[in-house]
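Work Package 3 (structural annotation) set out to generate three-dimensional models for the target panel prioritized at the project kickoff. During this period the team completed the workflow that converts sequence records into discrete structure tokens, so that structures can be stored uniformly alongside our sequence database. As a representative example, we reproduce one entry of 499 residues exactly as it appears in the project archive.
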Amino acid sequence: MQELTHYINGAHVKGTSGRFTDVYNPATGEVQAKVPLASADELAHAVECAAKAQPAWAAVNPQRRARVMMKFVSLLNRDMDKLAEALSREHGKTLPDAAGDVQRGLEVVEYCIGAPQMLKGEFTDSAGPGIDMYSMKQALGVTAGITPFNFPAMIPMWMFAPAIVCGNAFILKPSERDPSVPLMLAELMEEAGLPKGILQVVNGDKEAVDAILDHEVIQSVGFVGSTPIAEYIYGRGCANGKRVQCFGGAKNHMIIMPDADMDQAADALIGAGYGAAGERCMAISVAVPVGEQTADRLIEKLVPRIEKLKVGPYTGGNDVDYGPVVTAAAKQNILGLIETGIAQGAELVVDGRDFALQGYEDGFFVGPHLFDRVTPDMDIYKKEIFGPVLSCVRAQSYEEAIGLAMDHEYGNGTAIFTRDGDAARDFANRINIGMVGINVPIPVPLAYHTFGGWKKSAFGDLNQHGPDAFKFYTRTKTVTSRWPSGIKEGGEFNFKPME
């Protein structure tokens, strides 16, 4: 059995805590590797190495730091298939979806190539008599990120790429469920020219997380995961004086107006609701058709599409629609919520509870499910299921539909499908949710905008990637300068070469 490592100071390092956890192949249910869980001392060693390496890296000019990102992009493209296969093997998502995971991270790295522009300060000439003022954006020092299992390539790159190009060192604590790709990314960063010690990968569980939150050298912490853990990390990190951004759970609504193209809306719901087995914080898990007739038409379109979904392992070919969920515990949680939905009165229109795949009986596969006539008091509406389960909540009016999304405690993403520009404009302006799609089911912004939800989906005042990332990973220093006047030197007639 493969024993994975940490990646510290440019080398793979075996764990010394004596604690490990299993890494599964979700398609077969078999243990394929074990990953070490770091102690606080191991985390402290990684921070010490990072702190020693960071000042020299911060002194490298932004253009040269950006060139490392340029090379890293080239290496990501070179190894795309290799990264996607490793990701699929541990996470379970299909190969095209895994490649998309890498690609969306790569796009943020491409944005970071513009660091020289993003890191420019400001200058005021003659702010007073003989006085000039200017500002500088400087690195924080050692930073850290705690990333989830569902995007083991994309979210680490969303964090470490801007942090590093700003001149920081970065400690990455990836999910222990699929840690191989983060280790591979660290290798590629150093192949791209990153000095040793600037990107450290420390595998672990709560002990490592708490060590990150409590370590006085670490200046900032980023997190993506569930809302209860986001609240914990945000509270403890801020109490320790760190800059913290945390992104939590979601319950994303898609409103379908009576004038919507129903085939387009149904196709969008299939991809957004069941892609990656629903294990996306931007998945659409609630469909809100407006009016009984709209709801009936939508259900009629959805059922045959859902029944045709092909569920299987990533090795099953490019026509596989989605794979297994990540662990047996995740599967049991999803099935438990489905039973709760039935008990609380929701109508199970498509029942995937008996789904079985020959040859993969021990895998963590969950068949697709569709609930109709779900109400806001039901657990399947209130909780994030994080599985291939779509709930239909019938609204009698546009105002009722928008109220459902606005009243939910989560505010990550939402969408409306309509041909009415006025309704779409009103929806975009009024909705209290961070990312909005108009006839777009998963409104994840491109790298040069920012990603972030509202309400209990996000904690902190800055979003991920885009311009906010450069604000989060730098401090602004303002200098007021005055030089005493005196006798000026005479002219020089020789061209003095730049040193």
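The mean pLDDT is 96.
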